[in-house]
Amino acid sequence: MTKKWKISNLYLILVFVILYAPIVYLSIYSFNSADNMTNFESFTWDWYKEVFQDGRLLIIVLNTLVIALLSAAISTILGVIGAIGIHAVRRKRVETSLLTLNSILIVSPDVIIGASFLIFFTILGIKLGFTSVLLSHIAFSVPIVVIMVLPKLQEMSPTLVDAARDLGASRLDVLTKVILPYITPGIFAGFFTALTYSLDDFAVTFFVTGNGFTTLSVEIYSLARQGISMKINALSTLIFLFTLALVLGYYFLNKRRAERPLVRPEVS
Prior knowledge:
Number of helices: 12
Largest sheet: none
Number of strands: 0
Strand content: under 5%
Radius of gyration: 23 Å
CATH topology: MetI-like fold
CATH architecture: Orthogonal Bundle
Helix content: over 70%
Distance between the termini: 55 Å
Order of helices and strands: HHHHHHHHHHHH
Number of domains: 1
Structural class: mainly alpha
């Protein structure tokens, strides 16, 4: 048992090293006064100062955050509605078909999805920019939210709904006072996952951005094509820290909810 435990721990450590070593390396050299990633001369904040002094870059950061928050909020609402609708389907074959259609945007290659959205927006005459990026991010985030929320609905006992109806609750009461409180962890998980997917997405966004509008992922790609710069390292480090803060925030929020005493929803 001890030997097996040690092997599993070593394997886990190896996986984490492979995953995080490049990020740590990148972050360390974001403080390098030299403009290279081979010789660390001295510690400096200059690259971070350049990031915060770049007005165009700050506008791109704002664009990215607005797109991520809006797409996550809208896709969470649509995803919750979709998950409840799929869960309410009685025929197993229909439910399976809907789940299959829902999973297409998740399993399909990003390049295919991006090209499809580009053709779709061009046919409809939608100008590439804020609207096209927002719509595409909502489209690929909704299936993620559905998958996060649906297990909580399947986990919920039907007797909760039946008891609420026996007590005279209307459909709206059942939804707002029984179903939504129960699936709240799934809703939060879907929102934060959609938010991080939107922040990190490059392939789809690259196809649907237009002149005068871009996001951080596309901008970093454009900067990287011009050559290695410690400014890219600083910007990437800031994005990683922001994403890490989101994940930790969700973890502690979920932990606090789990530690609260269970309160039965009151139905008037």
